[in-house]
Design a protein that fits this description.
The protein has about 400 residues and is an all-alpha fold. Helices cover about 80% and strands about 0% of the residues. It contains 17 helices and no strands. Helix 4 packs antiparallel against helix 8 and helix 12 crosses helix 15. It is globular and about 50 Å long. It starts with a helix and ends in a 15-residue tail after the last helix.
Length: about 400
Amino acid sequence: MKTYFGVSALATFARVLPQAVLTPILLDKGLQFDSIIWTQIVYMIVLSLAEFPSGTLADRFSRKRLYVLSILVFACAYGIVWLGEGLLTMCLAWGVYALGTALNTSTMDIHYAAVLRDDERSFKRFFMLDHNVILVATIASAVATSVLYPLLGRGLYAVSISFFVIAAAFGSLALPRTPIVRELQEDEAPKFFASLRRDPWLVFVMLLFALTQLAFTPFFQMWQMVFLDAKLDADWFGLIFIAFQFINVASNAVWARLEHSDFLSFAALATVFAIGSAVPFSGESWTILLVTMIPFPLFLYANSLAFALQSRAPAALMSSMNALMGTASTAGAIATLGLCLIGLNVTEPRVLLSGSLMFFAVASSGLLALAIARRGSATSEAEPPDHLPQAAH
């Protein structure tokens, strides 16, 4: 497990290095705000097509091999961005990056989750450690970005490629072999859909996760645009990206210590709505502060959804279920990106971000309330196992 955390940290450092300054780099390559959205649409379409098949492959073949392969695919994508110019080349790069993301989904993290899931304390500790290792690597990468970007510019991608290669080599040699959890001759579809029919809460979790893209996609696509409109210099983006990660660490810490009740989810959604409603009426300094706060309630809410699925899904179908949740999330992101593309032509980024956050909070609250009502009506027919946390029921 320590080896996995080490490989994950190296790959995350490489992946994040250019992200805090991605918008300025792409603008320098001849793209505009709306054309940057097109690269994300290509990414989401490829990811939606590849994620579920990749999860099925992870259940049937070696999760370790797919994990290492995904890191090498990331390196190829970054090479295209580093050497390429123009919209079409960037769309190709984001398509390759999406394939790497799909291959990476539901691999080594799901392997360890499946091993530890019967011990709730160990499972929860691994879940938090996995997130925090990624966050610490992200913070270190963002600090490096603040130092290296003024010196190297787009050359950051060359540094990332080097770390990807090191991570892949280390993982190939040091990660343990992972068992095959399903044989090729198994008839997976009836078992998969039967599991969903037996536990409708899993379906609601996937739908709720898809709705999170109404908030996550506009936030991650437009926070740099909002800050540029607020007259904030791009040299500050690295430090702000670091601030996002510390906020994420705080969110993980709070999530790990609080009881996973329905109230927690509704409180997080109410906080998102409050921030979204305040952004359009704030001055430049307050806008920057409010947007910087958005990840806290979002990650608090998303962690509860992800934990609910991984605590509940059948062990032999965990990768497939996790990938299906990712596919649902990607479908939501594609729809949201289309709305963003239209919205950026009729309004400014911060107004669009505000509207997305408020709509997400209202829609998610309504669906969550419906899920709770359906769960309550089904209690007399099938009680969940007593050892599961409340949010996973």
